[in-house]
Design a protein that fits this description.
The protein is α+β, with helices and mostly antiparallel strands. The protein has helices at residues 2-18, 77-84; strands spanning 27-37, 42-52, 59-65, 100-102, 107-108, 111-112, 114-117, 124-133, 138-148.
Length: 166
Amino acid sequence: MKKLLVFLLLAFTVPLTTHAQQYWQQKVDYHIDVTLDDSDKTLDGSISIHYINNSPDTLSFIWMHCWPNAYKNDRTAFSEQLLGNGRTDFYFSNREQRGYINRLNFQADGLEAKMEDHPQYIDIIKVVLPRPLPPGGQTTLNTLFHVKLPFNFYRGGARYQQLPQF
């Protein structure tokens, strides 16, 4: 009976202590240089991202949000969310009122970093690192970018002519 009691005590306490992980959070600092062309409603710029891997894992890629692509067409999670809330202005907007980001060409510490589209979301990309990033490792990602600003549907954008009401 004593052996069973000791076994049960160990069975319920060992996983709590041996499998507990320390809290960690990635550290990311960035510098953005950008120019606004108000007449074209565009941004052209560059971004430098200093990334420190504080995780216990070696990273071969980093997921990144490309938020302007949420405004690219009417089949995005953003469009679905607005429709779910009863808003149809974005869904029925024209191409000129939509936005996107392009001309991305990432480098990691001066080496080309390939990009892959997310299989489901057009506003997320995978930046494949040219060298694995070990725990505690650092890298600097750089890219140029071009953004076509959307009409101000929600949380940012540019003011265009008034949208027709539906």
